[in-house]
């Protein structure tokens, strides 16, 4: 390199650094709208927006979706009695042009859950408190396990890899990142 090339390369590095810094500063000032979203409790007589069942009356994971378009579900997030209802509603909403900002499911790594039998089905307790939810970006779900939820076969979410492994060892199933769930995943349940 000649002396003339070094200042040019240095200027480019400086401009890239300044540009990156300004972008980060602007993002920090404007904020990532989805980063500030927190889950709400789904207790009381709240009905599932997908199927209409009372959420806290049924076993298994529950969910909620916060949308970009100011949550037309009456000023609240979409609320669901199961993982399958959560994903079904989200896929339909996306097909209709809506943008989910944050999707939350029960995090079974964060709760003391109960396992119980109802008829021939093995089920997990439901947890509807706001602190029991985690973003799907942080979760692994287990599909096709022995555990059923409010709507039958269910996706069981965990944030801790060790909990996923223990669950699969005891109840079977196939783990996958929660963000990788597609309609075909639900159809295969």
UniProtKB/TrEMBL annotation:
Q: What is the lineage of its organism?
A: Archaea, Methanobacteriati, Methanobacteriota, Stenosarchaea group, Halobacteria
Protein name in UniProt: NosL family protein
Q: Which organism is it from?
A: Halorubrum kocurii JCM 14978
User: What Gene3D superfamilies does UniProt report for this protein, alphabetically?
Assistant: 3.30.70.2050
Name the Pfam families on file.
Answer: NosL
**InterPro entries on file:** N2O_reductase_NosL, TAT_signal
């Amino acid at each position: 390199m000649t002396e003339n090339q070094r200042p040019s390369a240095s200027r480019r590095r400086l401009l890239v650094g300044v540009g990156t810094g300004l972008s980060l500063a602007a993002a920090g000032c404007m904020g990532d709208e989805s980063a500030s979203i927190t889950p709400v409790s789904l207790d009381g007589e709240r009905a599932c927006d997908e199927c209409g069942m009372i959420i806290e009356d049924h076993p298994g994971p529950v969910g909620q979706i916060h949308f970009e378009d100011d949550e037309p579900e009456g000023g609240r997030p979409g609320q669901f009695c199961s993982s399958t209802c959560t994903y079904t509603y989200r896929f339909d909403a996306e097909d209709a042009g809506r943008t989910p900002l944050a999707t939350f499911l029960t995090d079974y790594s964060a709760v003391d859950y109960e396992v119980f039998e109802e008829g021939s089905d093995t089920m997990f307790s439901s947890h509807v408190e706001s602190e029991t939810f985690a973003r799907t970006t942080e979760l692994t779900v287990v599909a096709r396990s022995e555990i059923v939820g409010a709507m039958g076969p269910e996706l069981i979410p965990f944030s801790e890899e060790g909990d996923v492994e223990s669950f699969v060892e005891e109840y079977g199933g196939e783990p996958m990142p929660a963000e990788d769930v597609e309609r075909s995943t639900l159809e295969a349940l």
